[in-house]
Amino acid sequence: MEAEATRILIGVNESSLKGYPHPSISSRTAFEWTLAKIIRSNTAGFMLLFLHVQIPDEDGFDDMDSIYASPEDFQSMRQRDRIRGLHLLEYFVGRCHELGIRCEAWIKKGDPKEVLCSEVKRVHPDILVVGSRGLGPFQRVFVGTVSEFCVKHADCPVITIKRKADEAPQDPVDD
Amino acid sequence: MEAEATRILIGVNESSLKGYPHPSISSRTAFEWTLAKIIRSNTAGFMLLFLHVQIPDEDGFDDMDSIYASPEDFQSMRQRDRIRGLHLLEYFVGRCHELGIRCEAWIKKGDPKEVLCSEVKRVHPDILVVGSRGLGPFQRVFVGTVSEFCVKHADCPVITIKRKADEAPQDPVDD
Predict the structure, then answer these.
(1) What is the pLDDT of residues B131-146, one digit of tens each?
(2) Residues near A21 by Cβ (< 8 Å), separated by ≥ 6?
(3) Interchain pair A162, B161: CB under 8 A
(4) N or C end of chain B, less CB within 10 A?
């Protein structure tokens, strides 16, 4: 009988091109890398934790065509966001179920890098895996500082998985 | 039959307190963490690569009491360094042998952070694991920038393992 399973927390987000429920290329790459290189055939030795952090939609761009006439309309908007997030998580939970890997998945609202680090403090995973768009230093000023922040501030070892070059869209922001 | 083994490169160095052949607390912590959290019982699924980088001893402090009378004396000094490094690697290779994990180990001279990254380019490991003394921002100015450099520059995912707080000597430089 093996010791307690190694708990790996993976931060996942939606594709910026295709939107929900499609996972971003970076999230999928980080997940597949973890399966192939760490878990391998030892499915009983690991437990995966999937955290999706939704950024509060302050400018409401996604909802430009909606009409808000009552408090219930806002409630239904929040409900819709939540369902979209759940469909994203369904992808990863479904894959784990096929492979026989124990997992848990949940959604939080907030700044992804801050929430990832506070959730590490709360759930104490053995490893945090985050995908990265693998941008150059110039592009990094505008996007993709989540992994760098976590490497510095998370209270557990962090693995940053850069997207494979052949999977990168021409514009790296299209993840 | 599983896919090709996951190759993990671990950078190891000697204890700054006890000297050769004793591994530093950080190296041992990184190695033991890799065994417990990644390899677990799946010893056939992984191969460990141990790299010890010796910093060229430019000021010759260690050899203050030696007399150098001929080119051969210098040769024997270099030979002695090499043997000390081999005894350090023997610790890790011995542990792997006991556990039935395939491994390779070698020594290079140079700046540890530069050599670790160039060896990643040469041997293409799946993961680089480096220990870290876990110093605060002030102490980090003087020591322990290897892991930060590798996270930024190595061509493979990097895991930095910070030493456990209860294993840290009072002066963090005494590793």
Answers:
(1) 987 655 554 444 458 9
(2) A14, A84, A87, A88, A90, A91
(3) no
(4) N
